[in-house]
Design brief:
single chain, 438 residues, mainly alpha, two-stranded antiparallel ribbon, 76% helix, 1% strand
Length: 438
């Protein structure tokens, strides 16, 4: 495996325990962090289950935003759903941007924990958090400037474009602390600690649900049951975005608190936050290919949104022309629930591969990735069957607009047929990232 290490970097992987430091009787045994001494299967479940909770909470944030948008006043609901739907792709962009920093920190911390180099792990954590905060300001500025061109690119109606710009620019304010939350969580994953990031995700979800509902002014309707909104803010889509921003700020502050408090063999120290060129470059060098990969995938999907906008414009006036982007994003939102277990199992693959490589056993690292890939195929493939059989029911949970009920179930059937292949790609790719091969 290519461990993405240059000749001037400290030794990693099998090179980390040579000469006087060699421990031949414990090769492949993780030496530090929460996974120290664990069997492979127990380590997989220790890593994957809390991340699954974390990802479920993250997906619920997006799903609840769509549900609130679906309960906005009838005269704006279709345009609001289109604006929020395209805005959701901004959330993907945010994740890609932050992962570029987080994957470098995660890989270096994982190998440091596997080899028992605690000082190196702390240094990588400090530099990753500093980078995340600075990068968050840059991402926020990009979001602010990107919103109007994005609306034009996707051929949105004037109303939908207005909602999109409101949504994206409101999110931009929270990016520095959003970066700390995302990158800090990935660094904790590298150390084998997944419980705290999952608890932070629960906090973020609760804050988002409450704040978005209060600020949007929407009454939540489920069948014959209605939860009336007693507040008079009525910010609609801007309120939904404000709730998300508030939740990101809460998550970033909670992540900092946990890192300063520390987990097993890893904590954030003030001295480690001062920029240090060598370690910072190692993080960036691992992250750049991952960022470029993610941006290329994002750009292709942006083209798809533009194509959907062209189809909608050719359909003429009316709900059908307006609602296609909303139908697309509802399908994507449900598909995210299949990605959750894949991402959780992939996180386990990446963390374990990095730690086993740090402990000096490339064969154990590969075995962990293969086991996780097989597990991911089973879980995501099963969820794909659910999408294919119950598409209309899933769609109606989010929206009962005729255009959504017509198109979204077809999209879910296609998504369901592809889940096995997504699983292989997702888990194996994260395994490679975990050893720094981006």
């Amino acid at each position: 495996m290519d461990t993405a290490v240059g000749p001037d970097d400290p030794p990693l992987a099998g090179q980390a325990i040579t000469g006087a430091e060699a421990l031949p009787d414990s090769e492949g045994v993780i030496r530090a962090g929460r996974l120290a001494g664990r069997t492979m299967w127990s380590a997989i479940w220790i890593l994957a289950l809390p991340v699954l909770v974390q990802q479920t909470m993250a997906a619920c944030v997006g799903m609840f935003d769509k549900i609130i948008a679906g309960d906005l006043p009838d005269d704006i609901v279709v345009a609001a759903m289109d604006g929020l739907g395209v805005g959701s792709y901004i959330g993907w962009f945010i994740g890609i941007a932050m992962t570029g920093v987080g994957i470098g920190g995660q890989a270096l911390i994982a190998r440091a924990m596997g080899a028992g180099r605690l000082g190196e792990g702390r240094a990588a954590l400090g530099q990753a958090i500093t980078l995340a905060f600075i990068w968050g300001f840059a991402v926020g500025a990009v979001l602010w400037l990107l919103a109007p061109p994005l609306a034009a690119t996707c051929n949105m109606t004037e109303a939908a474009a207005t909602y999109l710009i409101e949504y994206v620019r409101m999110l931009a304010y929270s990016m520095p602390l959003c970066g700390v939350m995302m990158v800090g969580g990935m660094c904790l994953h590298g150390a084998g600690e997944t419980v705290w990031p999952s608890l932070i995700a629960v906090l973020v979800n609760v804050v988002n649900v409450v704040a978005s509902w209060i600020l949007s002014g929407a009454d939540i309707t489920v069948g014959d049951w209605v939860l009336m909104n007693p507040f008079a803010f009525d910010l609609h889509v801007a309120g939904i975005a404000a709730g998300s921003s508030i939740s990101y700020v809460a998550g970033g502050l909670a992540t900092l608190a946990i890192l300063v408090r520390g987990v097993k063999d890893l904590d954030l120290r003030r001295a480690a936050l001062r920029p240090e060129r060598t370690m910072m470059w190692r993080i960036v060098r691992i992250g750049i290919p991952s960022f470029c990969e993610g941006i290329s995938m994002w750009a292709v999907n942006l083209f798809v949104l533009q194509f959907i906008g062209i189809i909608g414009a050719r359909a003429g006036d009316g709900a059908a022309g307006e609602g296609l982007q909303g139908a697309h994003i509802i399908a994507i939102q449900w598909e995210a629930f299949s990605f959750m277990p894949g991402f959780a199992i992939g996180t386990a693959a990446g963390a374990l591969a990095g730690q086993y490589l740090g402990a000096g056993s490339a064969s154990m690292a590969m075995r962990a990735v293969i086991r996780c890939t097989i597990l991911g195929v089973g879980v995501m493939g099963s969820l794909g069957i659910v999408f294919m059989l119950f598409g209309e029911t899933l769609t109606s949970i989010v929206s009962d607009e005729p255009v959504h009920l017509e198109y979204t179930p077809r999209l879910l059937a296609i998504c369901g047929a592809m889940q096995v292949f997504f699983a292989i790609t997702m888990v194996f790719r994260q395994g490679l990232r975990g050893v720094g091969d981006t």
